[in-house]
Prior knowledge:
Structural class: mainly beta
Order of helices and strands: EEEEEEEEEEEEHEEEEEEEEEEEEHH
Helix content: under 10%
Amino acid sequence: MLAAGGLMLASQQAGAVIVPSATDDDLLNLGVLLESTSHFEGETGYIYEATATTDSNLFASIGVQDGAGFAGWARHIDVGAVAFANGGALSEGMALRMSAWVMSNPNDPFSNPVNPLNTPPGEDGFRMEFLNVPLGSGLPGNPDLILTTPLSPVGTGLSTSGWTQKSFSFELSNNPLSPNFVDFANLQEVRAVMAQSGGVGATGEIFADNFKFEVFPSLAAATNLITNPLPSGTPGAFDVPPPPPVLNGDICCGGPTFDGPDGFVGIEDLNVVLSNWNATPPPPSLSPVLLSDFSSFNLTGTYNQFGAGTFTSGATDWTVQANDFGGGWFDFPGTIDATGRTDLEIQLDVNPGNIADIFNIVLFDADGTQRVFRFLDLVVGDNQTLTINLDDFFQDNAPGTIAGLDLSTIDLFHIQGTFANGDPGLLLDLTIDNLELFEGVPLIAGDINKDDFVGIEDLNVVLGEWNLGTPPPPGGAIVPEPATLSLLAFGGLTMLRRRTA
């Protein structure tokens, strides 16, 4: 995992015992001046690199989404290979410091609030990890991890218009009685980590620039942050790139089969609408398959902490109130054939006591496939219908003997609460009425507003965004026929009248 070009040492600054360190981070390229850089992400966490628009300054960004996800990066030092400025190895009383310039994305400001039940919130910050295995060989857990420090938050008090410098320092000790004991005899790798994890209500992104990892002769020497200036000079001296425009009218013709958006609204998109003018989708040919109407309903069994919940069976519905994470299952007599169905639908009330905003429905088939469908962004309210396409499943917990979910042999279903909200979970308070599989209405090409009709509303979307985006390479554009041009003129007049009105 050594960076291309090998180990590079910077010149000594301000008393620092220098380890390889970047002057301007390109965090998605391995080991700019460090031995290696790794990146991690999971669930709905994400990490990417952005480029400023005025000075080409490269910086990194990590972000989280409400209730789930983690992302971050780690800079690594092989302590057995690095010759520090004092000519030796790490020793008692020396200090490690990680620092960066950070700001909140003005287009997606960072927020990581404490959740209402005061269960562990999401975390953001710097930490250090000490491992007893060679560089790149360790896992973030026993027995490889000697010590990991608590996270030092970086996401509080950030500006959306300028940079703020953040740092975290750690004094080394070889004393087994010290809380900072890192066992120098076995220490082989040190990681400087910047991480994010999403708690309930956590949203947004943090930008980070000039992420540095340094070693100092003492903790006092590590307080001088002049060794990490912002490369572009004055904080906030560049423009943060705006989010890309959303082009609803870009419906053609990119991708390998020319059936998706190409980043430009033009004649190809217009032709898709006009070639399907006045079209409506065919009605479903299959009736819905009811998995349960929850009348006088009882679970077959529960697992994890779900069993400690309160379950109320009504004449026509069923209420679950669970204070922790877990789930329960219902086993059908035999199997259910839902061949040809495309969507999963649940009707429910989200009761005022509910705090969790995520829950899962898991479908099992006869050969053991366990497919998880995740419903997000629950809000309190009655008479709700939540629908998800069967192609939009979250994950398969276990593959069956035959690949995929066999809709012809649905064997049982699970209801899972607040797994994505952590352990312990959050209060789940739902009253469920119906759970069914049905054949959805196919979307017709050109039905931009998804009202099951291709008409003037869809045409006006294309005309309202005409020539927006980046034109594709020349060639391949379809020239409209005279009848098409007449209809275009008609649509344009309609749009103009509406704007005037």
